[in-house]
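Troubleshooting: if your tokenizer reports a length mismatch, compare your output against this known-good record of 266 residues.
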Amino acid sequence: MKDYSCNNECNSVAKCDIFEFMAKHVGMTVIHPGGFEATNTLLKYLNITSNSKVIDIACGKGTTAMLIAEKYGCNVAAIDIDEKLIEEANYLTKKKGLESKITYYVGDALKLPFNDNEFDVAISQAMLVLVDDKIKAIQEANRVIKKGGAAGWLELSWKKEVTKNFIEKVSTVICAYCMTNVTTFDGWKKTFIDAGINNLNIIPLDFSPTNGGFISMVKDEGFFRTLSIMYNIMKNKEIKNRMKIMNNFFKENSDIFGCGIYYFNK
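Known-good structure output:
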């Protein structure tokens, strides 16, 4: 019998962390909660203009950095700790002809290689759940934005307090290790307050990981990439089986899964 226990290595379809699975095995590029619809909602609150200097922290493959550069025509610095993701981000950015607008860096969100008060806007999505020192990550984003600048996060958030049994299932059923770091809306509020942020705005979003389906994926990934993703799922029994397990888990716990926008002005 195969061992389907989870681990933090992405060496199999069945065992690797959920976000590694979605990116490396399924082929998705937009995997933060709510997709681009949630991102665009967040951007509305950050008052970005063509003259803004923006930093995208934990940028991944650069999809949000490219969205910002295209939408507002501003300059973006994008940073991620994963060198391979930055290599792919550079490649995708050049394909879009946006290399003059976006500069990528390999670096740590807990020690940003930028001066104090350097940016007008800082944005980060699904990053706080990935770091141990969330307070430091928030403080670093606050440090690098100017007085009057804005910082915003999009993070998975529990709609209510969760049980120990639920967290165990998150780890063992869907292999979502980072989700064990998720907290409630009030829990995130406390984290920001502990980081010295007392003017936080919270926008709960209507979100379910299983909502949207094909049409939502097309909006995020584009038509042809969506077809490739769907084909990838259908042709591989392991991927198809894991997607079914994940979707069932999300549906059974739809009263728990949510996401929120957290933003403030310095």
